[in-house]
């Protein structure tokens, strides 16, 4: 057995460069693996015992933890399989015709057993890789949780930033998006722009911390597009992430449901204000627009839509009529109906402000 193991070890070591070049695997380790495998395989030949697959399973876990590439080790298994067959055939030839016939009679069983060895190794290897990936994801999620929820411990904060490959001083944005957003696509696009990002995905939203290069990259909004996306102001210290999360969330909440928009904090301050005081905003909308509830649903929708378009188009009756494909007098009539029902005039700045905030609150739900 030592002689066979040494010969097999030399074959694998010479044929597979990724094994011989691996820092985590020495030739002595490979030799021990050959001894264990050959002892187990040859020891079970000709017996009625169940094939013990713990040896390849243990090897799969060990090689996965060492980071040896799967194709490299599978190549080693193929070399081992061919080596065992060649040795058995040579021995059968030495003994004679009867031994050759016996070997051929049991060839299918032999190759099936060797295939099961390889399959057991692969299953264990892949399971170990998956376990490591899950642990890695859990560790990253825990580190990101520290940043997103805030901490007064500078040591924990520094460890979290280091573990996520984020500088403690730099240029950052927090991004909050709908949970349906295509995270993989956004991450890929951001990498192409030189932006490092780390993300947390929950049933409620996706939150990302973006580390920007020195110069603002062109196409940042395009990289993030795909649903409602709120972007915090740029900040310079990683310990400011917790505050930036709140601003990004409010910005996202200020975008109408179903919209496809990337909005930076401060671009629509009234919408953000409403999102930050949703209960009060709903009460205001009910107080100001409540009288319209008595109208049939279609009439109410027409009046509300006309008033909103009028605000969106800078208070221009002409542009509102064009947008709604109706006459200017029709727009005026609808606006007058809103004034009569709410008791507020679009010409009075205070009344107009109340109407605008109420309409915005209604649209944000």
Using brief descriptors, characterize the structure shown:
Alpha-Beta Plaits, elongated, PucR_C-HTH_sf, 365 residues, six-stranded mixed β-sheet, Arc Repressor Mutant, subunit A, CdaR_GGDEF, alpha+beta
What is the overall pLDDT average? 88
Distance separating the two termini: 77 Å
Order of secondary-structure elements: HHHHHHHHEHEEHEEHEHHHHHH
- Integer-rounded radius of gyration: 34 Å
Give the number of helices. Answer: 17
Derived structural class: alpha+beta
**Low-confidence residue ranges:** none
Number of strands: 6
Q: What percent of residues are in strands?
A: 5-15%
Whole-number tally of structural domains: 3
Largest sheet: 6 strands, mixed
Helix proportion = 55-70%
Shape category: elongated
């Amino acid at each position: 057995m030592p002689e066979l193991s040494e010969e097999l070890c030399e074959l694998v070591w010479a044929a597979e460069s990724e094994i011989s070049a691996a820092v985590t695997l020495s030739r002595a380790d490979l030799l021990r693996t050959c001894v264990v495998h050959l002892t187990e395989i040859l020891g079970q030949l000709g017996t009625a015992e169940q094939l013990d697959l713990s040896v390849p399973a243990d090897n799969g876990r060990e090689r996965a933890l060492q980071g040896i590439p799967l194709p490299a080790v599978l190549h080693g298994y193929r070399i081992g399989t061919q080596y065992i067959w060649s040795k058995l055939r040579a021995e059968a030839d030495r003994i004679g015709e009867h031994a050759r016939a016996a070997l051929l009679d049991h060839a299918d069983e032999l190759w099936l057993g060797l295939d099961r060895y390889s399959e057991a190794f692969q299953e264990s290897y892949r399971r170990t890789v998956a376990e490591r990936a899950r642990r890695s994801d859990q560790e990253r999620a825990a580190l990101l949780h520290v940043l997103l929820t805030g901490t007064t411990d500078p040591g924990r904060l520094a460890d979290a930033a280091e573990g996520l490959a984020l500088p403690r001083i730099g240029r950052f944005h927090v991004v909050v998006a709908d949970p349906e957003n295509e995270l993989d696509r956004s991450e890929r696009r951001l990498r192409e722009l030189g932006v490092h990002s780390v993300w947390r995905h929950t049933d409620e939203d996706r939150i990302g911390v973006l580390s920007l290069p020195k110069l603002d990259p062109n196409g940042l909004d395009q990289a993030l597009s795909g649903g409602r996306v709120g972007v915090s102001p740029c900040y310079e210290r990683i310990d400011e992430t917790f505050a930036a999360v709140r601003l990004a969330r409010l910005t996202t909440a200020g975008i109408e449901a179903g919209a496809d928009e990337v909005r930076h904090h401060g671009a629509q301050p009234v919408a953000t204000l409403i999102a930050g005081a949703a209960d009060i905003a709903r009460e205001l909308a009910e107080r100001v627009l409540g009288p319209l509830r008595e109208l049939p649903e279609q009439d109410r929708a027409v009046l509300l839509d006309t008033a909103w378009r009028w605000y969106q188009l800078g208070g221009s009756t002409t542009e509102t009529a064009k947008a709604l494909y109706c006459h200017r007098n029709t727009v005026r009539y609808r606006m007058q109906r809103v004034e009569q029902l709410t008791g507020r005039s679009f010409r009075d700045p205070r009344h107009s402000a109340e109407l605008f905030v109420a309409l915005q609150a209604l649209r944000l739900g």
